[in-house]
């Protein structure tokens, strides 16, 4: 069963940039309503895409460095990284419906 991975500024490079599979990074915060709305969707997708996509969560309140580095201004912001590329292949800002999110993921990882 898949699960999301908590990532910090210190573990970002190892968990995201050095991953051998694509990674969707969810920049979120505990107080963010839309972040809470998409959390169950991301949990579900982590199971469905197990082995094909890693889903990582970065709490922006305690890990502001990477959020700033990637220009995260609003949350939730989802960045999808392909293996070996430090630049995101896609950026999604805001809570999207599951079908839309799935389509954006499939476009990047297919």
- Low-pLDDT runs of 5+ residues are none
Order of helices and strands: EHEHEHEEH
Q: Quick one: how many beta strands?
A: 5
Average pLDDT level? 95
Please bin the fraction of helical residues: 25-40%
CATH class category label: Alpha Beta
Count of domain modules: 1
Shape type: globular
Tally of contiguous helical segments: 4
Which structural class fits the helix and strand makeup? alpha/beta
Q: What's the arrangement of strands in the largest beta sheet?
A: 1-3-2-4-5
The gyration radius over C-alpha positions equals 12 Å
Strand fraction equals 15-25%
Q: How far is the first residue's CA from the last residue's CA?
A: 21 Å
User: Which topology does CATH recognise?
Assistant: Glutaredoxin
Largest sheet: 5 strands, mixed
Q: Architecture, CATH level 2?
A: 3-Layer(aba) Sandwich
- CATH homologous superfamily (4th level) name: Glutaredoxin
Would you kindly provide a written description of the structure presented here, covering whatever features stand out?
By secondary structure, the protein is of the alpha/beta class. The chain has a single domain (5-109), classed as 3-Layer(aba) Sandwich (Glutaredoxin). It has four helices and five strands. It has helices spanning 12-17, 33-48, 64-69, 98-109; strands at 5-6, 23-28, 54-59, 77-81, 90-93. The chain has a five-stranded mixed beta sheet. A hairpin with an 8-residue loop joins strand 4 and strand 5 (90-93). The model has no long low-confidence stretch (mean pLDDT 95).
List the helices and strands and how they pair.
Layout: E1 5-6, H1 12-17, E2 23-28, H2 33-48, E3 54-59, H3 64-69, E4 77-81, E5 90-93, H4 98-109
Parallel strand pairs: 1-3, 2-3
Antiparallel strand pairs: 2-4, 4-5
């Amino acid at each position: 069963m898949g699960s999301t991975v908590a990532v910090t500024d210190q573990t970002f490079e190892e968990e995201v940039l050095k991953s051998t599979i694509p990674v969707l990074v969810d920049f979120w915060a505990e107080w963010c309503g839309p972040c809470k709305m998409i959390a169950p969707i991301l949990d579900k997708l982590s199971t469905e895409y197990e082995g094909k996509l890693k889903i990582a969560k970065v709490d922006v309140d305690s890990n502001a460095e990477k959020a700033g580095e990637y220009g995260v201004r609003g949350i939730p912001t989802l960045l999808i990284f392909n293996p070996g590329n430090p630049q995101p292949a896609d950026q999604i800002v805001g809570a999207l419906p599951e079908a839309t999110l799935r389509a954006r993921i499939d476009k990047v990882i297919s």
